[in-house]
Amino acid sequence: MEIENLTLKDIEMMDYNQIIGIIKETNRIPGGKNTIFELVNRTCLDRQSKVLEIGTSTGFTAIEISKLVPCNITSIDINKISLEEAKKRAIEEGLTNINFVNGDVISLPFKDQSFDLVIVGNVFSLLYNKDTALKECKRVCKKNGFIAAVPMYYLENPNQELIESVSKAIQVKIKPMFKRDWERFFETPELEVYFCKDFKFDYIEDNAIEEFTKIITNRAHLFKMQKESLIKLQKKYKSFMYLFRDNLSTMGFSIILICNKRSWEDPELYTSKEVIKES
């Protein structure tokens, strides 16, 4: 449906993913540019590297990687509208090294051992069949390559009403997970966690949310909408931002690099931790 034909009822029925498809919000991996910089450096990407990004949305991660290293990137998403926006943004940036593909992580349309790095971001958090998705990522990753996951998790027991509200907003039934749950998930007989770095989300003040939503929902293309529909869209989007603020302020995330276990390598006994000096 054309944006100018959207009615109040159409907007009311939309979930968050449909709303951002209209607004063209920049959907970032948890941690944004800092996470992307960390992944590029930790995995030593170069111009010959082949990267698969799963759940690209509007292409932010792929485009940012290209700015750091113009490697060969394939980015997939199940949302065709978001992919079209991703393609436009890549063209606007003058990038020709990204191939955007409509696809699903549950059945990746690629040959075995095709990629040096497979970036999954927070996609695992939104899947029912996580095990199948992880097997697919492992299948298309080269033997000495890495799978990069950036899962989000709760730092404390979440409020059930909040969980239900977020589940309704994104149309995915959320099962609260903690860091220990992700550690168990990624430690399989064939895979091991090579690197892990933990973060906590900031609490975003009301004035920052008000300013952000004003900027995002006043984009020129949205003024093609009927006035009543645009006002409804603006109010609904703002309510999502407050909801996600309340949810994320109780959460953290980890940058995790996963690799294949070597059959000949013994377990490491004498482990160590970084010493952080207090100032």
Give the total of domains.
1
Mean pLDDT: 94
CATH architecture grouping:
3-Layer(aba) Sandwich
**Uncertain stretches:** none
Helix content, binned percent: 25-40%
Give the total of beta strands.
Answer: 8
Radius of gyration: 20 Å
Characterize the overall form.
Answer: globular
The largest β sheet comes out as:
8 strands, mixed
Write down the CATH topology.
Rossmann fold
What gap, in angstroms, lies between the N and C termini?
Answer: 57 Å
User: What fraction of the residues are assigned to beta strands by DSSP?
Assistant: 15-25%
- CATH top level? Alpha Beta
Look at the structure and name the CATH superfamily. Vaccinia Virus protein VP39
Give a quick precis of the structure:
The protein contains 10 helices and 8 strands. By secondary structure, the chain is of the alpha/beta class.
